[in-house]
Amino acid sequence: MIAHLLALDPLVLTGVGLKAVLIVAIKVVVAFVVMLVAVILMIWFERKVIAGFQNRIGPNKAGPWGIMQTLADGLKLVFKEYIHPERSDRFVFLLAPYLAVVPVFVIFAIVPVGGDFTNGNNGVVTLFGEDTLLQVADPPIGILLMLAMSAIAVYGAMLAGWSSGSKYPLLGSVRASAQMVSYEAALGLSIATVLVVSGTLSTNGIVVGQDGLRNWNIIATGVVPFIVFFIAVTAEMNRPPFDLTEAEQELVGGYQTEYSSMRFAMYYLAEFLATVVMSTIIVTLFLGGPRGLFDIPVIPNAIEGTLWLLAKLLVFLFTYVWLRATLPRYRYDQLMDLGWKFLIPVAFGWMLLITALKVAQDEDWNRVVVVAVALVVAALASAVFLLALKVSARNRQLEGSSF
Amino acid sequence: MGYLQGFLVTLRQIHVLGGKRVTTQYSGGLEKGPDGKNPQDQKIPKPERLHGRHVLNRYEDGMEKCIGCELCAGVCPAQCIYVRGADNVPEEPVSPGERYGFVYEINYLRCIHCDLCVEACPTEAITETKLFEFSFINRRDAIYTKAELLVDDGGKPRQLPWEDWRDGDDRDTSGWMRATAPAGDADFEGVVAWSGELGYGVRPPEQGQS
User: Fold this and answer.
1) Phi and psi of A359, rounded to 5°?
2) Do B23 and A325 touch (CB under 8 A)?
3) What is the pLDDT of residue B40?
4) Beta-carbon separation of B14 and A52 below 8 A
5) In the 8-state DSSP scheme, what is residue A337?
6) If you write DSSP's letter for every residue of B46-92 in order, what string do you get?
7) Contact between residue A168 and residue A257 where contact means Cβ atoms under 8 Å apart
8) Which of B11, B15, B29 is the closest to A66 by Cβ?
9) At residue B85, what are phi and psi to the nearest 5 degrees?
């Protein structure tokens, strides 16, 4: 029972031995190292691809194709001087970078990075004679852990700006916390849609449920939650076009302005790590995680999953760089409008619709009627919503600008 | 749909997808050859009017051209030039006139290579080379003193350890260029006042200047 609550894995179901502990330890270390290497490669990838978008060459001096450039930059940062602003709150100032980095690592723990999901298998592979999942942990709360951790990451941004004791970081952190908190709602609602379809919180369970292309959640939930989730995640990570928390032209560096040396590097790490990890979360939730479209010959099924995950991950990483190369930054009020007036209502309405369809399926209701009723309700709700927006706009006009 | 077309516009810029590559390929991180130098690591030809690091020129007889008038320091928008003039000792003059540049320093952490100093100089004492490949690693090296800026006896710039001089680079110092308005002489009207590559060495006497 306790094993089921805590966990984790088929590994510890039969009792926790030394071997099981060692395997978990190995998994933790491997995940940690893989993440660090992934960040190094991601920064290089982003610089190289954005250089391509801008008719440049990008880093090409350090190592083959400049692949060691990040390592060189990181090494340089390590040797830089720590600077404590005089008016900073020392303890919080030192704490904040860790609050930004650690949650992202924790999120990665629940991502299934591989495993055998073919032919009705549930992702279990055999490591050193023990059955286990290719993810650090598969807690029953699963995807909620990701929501909790990304909520904690808000503190990393908020406390950094607040404790720096200077004005631009403070403004940046105010923007960051407002943005992250507002988009978390849209994020949660689109995850809720996935959970309604999957019927489980566990990430492994979500992947197991997406058997075959037709059951991938992107199709099973009808694309809309995927788009909402993608936009919300981009905002949650403060990536362009939602990077107005560190808008150079206005706020110098945003909440990380006063940071130097390794602490600055940690924010950098957290940012790019979040890009990679959130991409894997999107793949897990909507695109079947390590599930493949077809069976690659020769390669064993257990490894195939990882390859598929990598392929899907690359698509998303490229898309993020593409967004950065294409879209100008949002204005603050546009950002808030998009979040509160568009994404949240759409995500919420879509979740209700999917839930209604799910209930209709379970209770054997007439599906056409359900959809018709849903459409009427949606029309009514959006009419009321638009009316409310209009009224508030008029009231604001009457009150006059407050600036 | 215009929104999505924007994505296509940026995508098409990538080299492998048909975009042009504007920056010239400059040694693509290749390994060094047996001689320690990368055979591909060549400098590309530079434009004629490139503004590089400065030199202080001499006359053919070895006299310094600088007269310590501080016009360059006055015109410098980055205020990176520091000049102090001093009176020439009549027995062993440094420059032909009354005064000479006693201290001459340029701070290359500040210099924006605008070439206004070159235009301001009444005696063509300060000109710019084509060298921009210099990377000092401390602030003291960043401030070039008079000894470092002054050309050697052959009229070529001094090569400092952190500068990347290649064969032939020191010929293009534009050591002598015509003043933009030499005393308002009619012979220079309508003539291009700036000629880029003048090299170094002894120049034939100019005609038409009174």
Assistant:
1) -65, -40
2) no
3) 54
4) yes
5) I
6) PPTT----EEE-B-TTS-B------HHHHH-TT--EEEEEEEPPSSS
7) yes
8) B29
9) -90, 160
A332 at the B interface (CB within 8 A)? no
**Cβ distance B134 to B162 under 8 Å?**
yes
Q: Looking at CA atoms only, how far is residue A57 from chain B in angstroms?
A: 7
Strand partners, B81: B106
* Partners of residue B127 on adjacent β-strands: B55
Does residue A241 have a cis peptide bond before it, meaning omega lies within 30 degrees of 0? yes
Give the 3-state secondary structure percentages of chain B, helix then strand then coil, rounded to 5.
20, 15, 70
Is pTM beyond 0.80 here? no
B25 CB neighbours in chain A (<8 A) are 57
Tens of pLDDT along A344-398?
999 998 898 888 888 888 888 888 888 888 889 889 999 999 999 899 889 888 8
Q: Does A54 touch chain B (CB under 8 A)?
A: yes
Tokens representing A68 are 């060691």
pLDDT in tens, chain B (210 residues): 777 888 888 888 887 777 776 665 554 444 455 565 555 566 777 777 788 889 888 876 778 888 899 999 999 999 999 999 999 888 888 888 888 999 999 999 999 998 888 888 887 788 888 888 888 888 899 999 999 998 887 778 888 888 888 877 777 766 544 444 444 455 655 554 444 455 555 555 555 544
Gap between the Cα atoms of A305 and A288, Å rounded: 10
Query: Which one, of B176, B153, B142, lies nearest residue B53 by Cα?
Result: B142
The answer, yes or no, to whether ipTM is higher than 0.85 is no
CB A246 within 8 A of CB A157: no
Chain B partners within 8 Å of A60 (Cβ): 27-29
Per domain, the residue ranges of chain A are 2-365
Could you tell me how far CA A401 lies from the centroid of its own chain? 37
Chain A nearest C-alpha distance from B168 (Å):
25
Tell me how far apart the alpha carbons of residues A265 and B14 are, in angstroms, rounded to a whole number: 29
